[in-house]
Amino acid sequence: EIYTLSLQRSSDLHPDAKARLVTDRNRQWADQIEKMLSENRSFFVTVGAAHLTGEDGVPALLRKDGFTVDGP
């Protein structure tokens, strides 16, 4: 399937599209960020705003895994 994404709230997406474009990617990114945090290096991570909010947002997922997150 091909999804076209225009400027809209992620909550307005079809559930399958939201899972593929937001939720699944958030978990993958949170896992990758956790691996990066275990290294003795600095990283700059940037994601779109849709990935920052809600209980399945990247900051929330990191908090659930025991990390301290400042911001959204």
Task: Lay out the secondary structure.
Elements lengths: L14 H23 L20 H7 L8
Helix pairs in contact: 1-2
Distance from first to last alpha carbon: 32 Å
Q: What sort of overall outline do the alpha carbons produce when their principal axes are compared?
A: elongated
Contiguous uncertain segments of 5+ residues: none
Instruction: Report the order of strands and helices.
Output: HH
Our Rg estimate from Cα atoms comes to 13 Å
- Look at the structure and give the mean pLDDT: 83
- Helical fraction equals 40-55%
Q: Could you tell me the strand content as a percent range?
A: under 5%
Q: Structural class, judged by helices and strands?
A: mainly alpha
SS field, number of helical segments:
2
How would you sum up the major sheet?
none
Number of strands: 0
Describe the structure.
- With 72 residues, this protein is mainly alpha-helical.
- It has helices at residues 15-37, 58-64.
- Helix 1 (15-37) packs across helix 2.
- The longest helix is centred in the middle third of the chain and has 23 residues, at 15-37.
Give a quick summary of the entry.
With 72 residues, the chain is mainly alpha-helical. Helix content is 42%, strand content 0%. The radius of gyration is 13 Å and the shape is elongated.
Features:
single chain; 72 residues; 2 helices; mainly alpha
